[in-house]
Amino acid sequence: MGQIYEAQTSTTERESRPTGWCEYPKLAAQLMISGHPVELMDGDAGHLPLKWISSLLEEVMKTLGDQKVFVLSVLGLQSSGKSTMLNAMFGLQCAVSAGRCTKGAFMQLIKFSEEMKKDLKSDYVLVVHTEGLQAMDSNTTHHHDDKLATFVVGLGNLTLINLFGDNLLMNQGILQIVVQAFMRLKKAQLSPRCVFAYHNVTDVVPQNKMDRMRCLQEQLDHMTKLAAREELCDAECFSDVTEFDVQNDVKYCAQLWENSSPMGPPNPNYSESLQEVKDTILSLQSGVITLSQLRTNVENVWTTLLKESTKAVVSSFF
């Protein structure tokens, strides 16, 4: 629907008589309001259909009004448990598998209950769910991952970053992408927040927690210095790029199963640990925006990202 709408708006004269494709944004808005995920960025082409998304959000506003939304972006390696985590925390129905089950970026609107609204500043949470970064079974490039991460981090009021296991080398790649994204947004005078969630971690005892936090802080600070040189930015530690407290903004999630076998019983501690992550996310709702501001942010972040990509391509020839 989005591709047809973009093609028609690009080729049809304004004076021509409207046809059925003009109703596509309204139909998609009804799906989005009822809880269905809507594709935000095409995973194959790395393209965001700006006219389509703008018209879609306009129709959502016509139905709901200019509601307040909290935008939660989710990043992580492939098969790091992003979809399972979102299904458990917000009751979504994201596809889950051992391999790739999401391509590109999708947005899903979730309405808060009247009881929850009393303690929160927003009416809805908009979850921006992305494909796994550094996927081994795809042809995506490092540039594609950087572009996707920078866009969703810039769009979100808060970004939830999934880390998997105790392997620091495995998580090093995504940390580099995340730091680079926050650095670019700082240059654009944007400062979203982030929360890290460790999955599939064994022996979560106080001493091990402190060691992991220290290692994570050291890695983030080291990569910030490297990214600062590349982006010509003045930053010595990750806290110079975004507001971050390693004591409060790093959470540990219990394993989904009680043993290594997928036929084992579910681990009740998994849901309990995710509830703590969810409470932390909802407590950081300091950057609530309206739907009209969201539409403007999508356009601004995407346009800025395209300009930066063009500069990078041009500079590579000289």
Note the topology.
Blueprint (H helix, E strand, L loop, with lengths): L1 H10 L12 H10 L4 E4 L8 H15 L3 E9 L5 H9 L14 E7 L2 H4 L6 E7 L11 H14 L2 E7 L3 H20 L5 E7 L6 H26 L18 E3 L15 H16 L5 E2 H25 L3
Parallel strand pairs: 2-4, 2-5, 5-6, 6-7
Antiparallel strand pairs: 1-3, 2-8, 3-4
Helix pairs in contact: 1-3, 2-3, 3-10, 6-7, 6-10, 7-8
Give the radius of gyration: 20 Å
β-strand percent reads: 5-15%
Structural class: alpha/beta
Number of domains: 2
Structural notes for this entry:
The chain is of the alpha/beta class and 318 residues long. The chain has 2 domains: 1-65, no CATH class; 67-293, P-loop containing nucleotide triphosphate hydrolases (Rossmann fold). 47% of the residues lie in helices and 14% in strands. The chain has 10 helices and 8 strands. Strands 1, 2, 3, 4, 5, 6, 7 and 8 form an 8-stranded mixed β-sheet that branches. Strand 5, helix 7 (168-187) and strand 6 (193-199) form a beta-alpha-beta unit.
Concise description?
With 318 residues, this protein is α/β, with parallel strands linked by helices. It contains 10 helices and 8 strands.
Annotation keywords:
single chain; alpha/beta; Rossmann fold; 2 domains; eight-stranded mixed sheet; 10 helices; 14% strand
